[in-house]
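Figure 2 data, in text form.
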Amino acid sequence: MPDDDAMKKEGQYLKVLKQQADKLEALDARIDRLDEQSNAVIHRAKMALAELGREPVPPASGPRPLRPSPGLRPWPELVAEAEMMIDEPVLIDDLLTPAEVAQVSRRLGRHAAEFEAIHRLDKLDWAICGVAGILAALVDIVLIQMPQHPGFLGGEPVAGGPLAN
């Protein structure tokens, strides 16, 4: 059973993943809206140029300048932000789609089946176990018997078997 510290860390990981996934979804939706707006503006500009009898000028080719990366943030800062944004506990099912959960379940099922196929006991294995148990019982009865003692609580002394002591 995992300890409380491990469970807490797992919960932190899941909350940070959920919060980051939510941020990515919001950014994706924003990019889609901006893309639609940009396409609409481009279309209107092309229509205006066509009315004026002008040809659109193709954009200059070459690399576009990249914005600088915001940099990596420390883990405690990410955890604190996720804790502020998400109150309820996050489960792995909150992060994966039902199709992904089904895919993981199928893979785990295949691994479990492979494991059981490797470690399954056949009839010969069970026969060896039974014979070993019977032999152990016979050795105990014939050779060990009861350990030798001088009489317990006033009882009669017992000599014991040849291997008892």
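Caption note: The radius of gyration is 37 Å.
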